[in-house]
Every structure is written in structure tokens, then in C-alpha cells.
Amino acid sequence: MTESGAGSALILGIETSCDETAAAVVRDGRDVLSSVVASQDDLHAEYRGVVPEIASRAHAERVLPVVRRALADAGVTLAEIDAVAVGHRPGLIGSLLVGVAAAKGLAWSLGRPLIGVDHVHAHLYAGLLGGSADVERGTGSQSRPTRELFPALGLVVSGGHTALYRCESPIGITRLGGTIDDAIGEAYDKAAAILGLPYPGGPNLDRLAASGNERAHDFPVSRLDTGSLDFSFSGLKTAVLYAVRGVPGPGGVYGRDHTALDGGAKADLAASFQRAAVAAITLKVERALASPKRERRDVPRPAGPAARAPAPFRSLLVGGGVSANSRLRRDLTALCERHGLALRLPPMAWCVDNAAMIAGLGHHLWRAGRTAGLDLAAVPTTAC
Ligand code: KG4
Ligand code: ZN
Fold this sequence. Notes:
The protein folds into 2 domains: 167 residues, ATPase, nucleotide binding domain (Nucleotidyltransferase, domain 5, 2-Layer Sandwich); 203 residues, Nucleotidyltransferase, domain 5 (2-Layer Sandwich). Helices cover 39% and strands 17% of the residues. The protein contains 11 helices and 11 strands. Strand 8 and strand 9 form a beta hairpin. It is globular, with a radius of gyration of 21 Å. The relative contact order is 0.19. Bound molecules: 5'-O-[(R)-(carboxyoxy)(hydroxy)phosphoryl]adenosine and zinc ion.
């Protein structure tokens, strides 16, 4: 049974927005019966980044075998699936189109509803899937029902997105701010490339940072305007570039590169980058937590529901590839303990792109009647 008592439902989720081909079967928006992810890391490694044409071709080859495997792992047949959810935005258009076409074909042939899911919003849902860590005031309690976590502050930290959201429910999401240049994952990957670390850069930089001195370099932590909930990572990336290669001379030529650094110097740069990158996130999370409370105390409010100040957040939902970062997980855990806030961090497997989060959020959209027609479009941008 669902939390609302509405009965058991099986959703097939499909995800192909970037370079992972994924399918999953989720029961009642919570129990992950299977989650299959075919990574394309090996195909893109030599280019040190995702090549869109290679990605969409690989999705086309893999999507149906991955769906078959997800059904087999879950021990269910296609006929038992109640609805098909697909990540239809945002992402690489050629990649999205493959998943959307597969989902449409399956939904149509089964006579089941089709659900279009925003990939970024789905990242916020990853921590609400069964088995996710529920770190509450350091007790590690798993018991709090999902509805008691709302309104929640949502934080997405991925390779393509870095944003804060106000979440009234899993599907009632409003954007509070986001990056004005690079996403944090992109900054990690670029900093890793500058340091000569292997692809994918983020996890490798995270590992290297563990042995470095984070105070070795005083890299900038972007604040932007007072009260801004936006992020900026391009200045930090440039600071790392100059620390490694020196300031460019005439014609933009650098005098050295990462080969001039020994292991200890690289680790110090990695640790100093990580300190500044994570501090930029926790700073804005603190600001977002302060905003509604300040509004409640200071602003004289006229009567009427429309004029009512927003209720304070009860939890922090975090998602996206960079939520796997060791330092970010540690600092957000401490921050939430200080604020007495529940924290939902996905387990490692659901930090990066997966289809369980698509099926999970798809369940709530389906229950709310937000299904799509066969004209569902693949869209490169997020809904909000
Ligand atoms: O969410 P995701 O799989 O794809 C997007 O939707 O973008 O995120 C991938 C990003 C990459 O930039 C990767 O380097 C970063 O997440 N990432 C990490 C870590 N694990 C993955 N960044 C920092 N530390 C990590 N441990
Ligand atoms: Zn993602």
C-alpha cells in the first residue's frame, strides 16, 4: 500500500538524458524492485567529456536490453506495469529522444499511461526512495513518513545543474536560485582536468582531496549579492587554472601545467578547491534556511492566505551526482544537525543518474493525474 493507502502500483522508469542508459521498476513510489544503469563512461573517457552523438547512438543500442533486464531483476512482466515514466527534460536532445521514443512505444503497446518527468526534479526525489539514508539530528532514523518532510528545501548538485528549490511536495517545486555559469559538477570535472586527473573527474578529485591540505590555497567562495540564492563557480575554476598553470603570458600562453606538480601539491590544490566549492553550497543553503524565518519575524503581514509567509523548511532534500561527494555529505549533515532539520541524502547509487528516481517521482505525477500524451516532447531545458 502507498502512504495514502491508494493501493500498490508498479511504475517502469526510463532515463537517457545524458550518458547513462537506465531503467527501473519502483513500487508505490518507494520500493525499488530493480535499478539498472548502463554507464557510457568508457565510451566518452578518451574525449574527457560526453560526446552527444556517441551518447545517443549508445542509448539506442542499449535502451531495450536495459528495460528487459530491469523487468527481469524485478521479477515482473511488462503486462504488470501500471505506467511508464520517462525523463523527458532537461538533457541532450538526441539522448532524451531515445528514451522518450522507447517509453512512448511501450506505453502505447501496453495501453498504459505515459508520464514525463523532469530529470532535475527527480534528483530531489532520489533521497525519498526506500533505502535512502535519513539522517535526522544524527540519529540515523529511517522512520519519518515522506509527507512530514515537507515543505522541504531542495538542493540539486549535478554535472549540468546547481540549484535550490522550495518543495511543498515531491511534485510542488519552485526554483529559488541556481548557477549563473558553471554547474558544480562541471567545475569539479574541469578542475580535475586542469590537475590532470582521469575522467570522470569529480570522484577522482574528491578522493585526492582527502590527502591534501585544504588551507594551502585560499580559493574564492562566491557569495554574489546579499540575499542571493544563485551560485557561481567560474571564478573558482579560473583560480585553480592560474594556480596550476600561472597567469597566461602574451598570446594567452601558459608557462607550465599539471606535470610540474608533485602528488602532494596536487592533493593540496584538490583539497583547497573542494573546501571552496562545498563552502559555496553550504553558504547558500544557510541563506535559504534563513530567508523564510526572517520573513516570518520581520515583515508585517496583511491577513489572507495569499499574503501568508511560507512555512519554514522541515527538511533538506539533496540530489545529483555531486551529492556523492564526501565533503559535501559531511558538511550538510553537520549543517542539518545544527538546524534540527531532517536530511535526505541518496545512497551513492542514486546520487548519479538512474531511473529509480524517475519512476519514483513519476508515481506521484501519475497519482496527481499529470500524465502525458503521445505528443510528449523531449525538451533540453528544465521546467523550473
Ligand atoms: O547527476 P549526474 O550523474 O549527471 C547530471 O545530471 O549532470 O552528475 C554527474 C556529475 C559529474 O560532474 C561528476 O564528476 C560529479 O557528478 N560527481 C562528483 C562526485 N561523484 C560524481 N563530484 C564530486 N565528488 C564526487 N564524489
Ligand atoms: Zn542528473
